[in-house]
Write a structure and sequence with these properties.
This protein has 343 residues and is an all-alpha fold. It has helices at 2-27, 29-39, 42-64, 72-92, 107-130, 133-141, 143-155, 161-179, 186-212, 217-239, 251-277, 280-302, 308-340. Helix content is 81%, strand content 0%.
Amino acid sequence: MNVLLLLNGLKGRALEELRSSLYNELRTSEGAKRQQQRFCGLVVAMSFNFFVAVGIILTNKLVMGRVGFNFPIFLTLIHYSIAWILLAFCKTMSLLPVSPPSKTTPFSSLFSLGVIMAFASGLANSSLKYNSVGFYQMAKIAVTPTIVFAEFILFRKTISFKKVLALAVVLAGVAVATVTDLEFNAFGACIAIAWIIPSAINKILWSNLQQDSLPNACRLMWKTTPITIFFLLALMPWLDPPGVLSFKWDINNSTAVLTSALLGFLLQWSGALALGATSATSHVVLGQFKTCVIVVGGYLLFNSDPGFVSLCGAVAALGGTSVYTSLNLKETNHQSSSKQLPT
């Protein structure tokens, strides 16, 4: 009898220790990263990110085009609200990895990122509404030179002459691709230009916070999403046309909008998975492939015809981006190899 009680006690203790270890493995950022690498391989992560990234742009264009939901800021608000609900569910189920206890994030940094995200995401959907899919993608490529210029202005960070030439090719290709687009829209072009600057700042702030304070993307989203929702509510009366309450919320329209919102949440998650599962080179190649597929998808689904000259500009912009990324990677590899040399 005593032996049975002892065995039951040992079994219960072992189960409790196993449950505690699994809980800690999921709750800590390092444990979550190990679990992610164990269950989500390279092919799964990159395929997931590819389909979500292509799907959300085409779905958003469908929602604001054929569905007739002409309220890009309100659509962005729905995206972040659904993401907030899903993140709250994950937090309730203790699925969000905790931040390292030694790292604290100033509220001013989170507030700044939340405000910039509201402008960047809202103007991105506005640009997609008023421009063709190809024009939208070319404006997105122009974010990289803007980031380099912003880092030079803010942090006096300089780059090599070869990188400057590569970025000059990117800018020239983007200019040719956008100006010669047969569906060029002056108002849409202004929206796209206004979107590039907050998008670049958003990437800089997001990268700095992830490297310095919050390495987990979902944890960072959880802290900044309420701020973004508040400022999207403030932007709605200024940037959205009137008549949002008169929109017909039938089953088909509601399904399309909710699908777009779910893809918006999955985009952040899939991007973090892809960056964690692959090298920078593979991720950039994947980004170039996504651009090509999105442009072709816009041509097939929305009868978008940018014209031959615009396509040549797009190819030049993609080539310049590839060269710039290659130079970055060579410089990074050289620095890492020099650090490993014995002194």
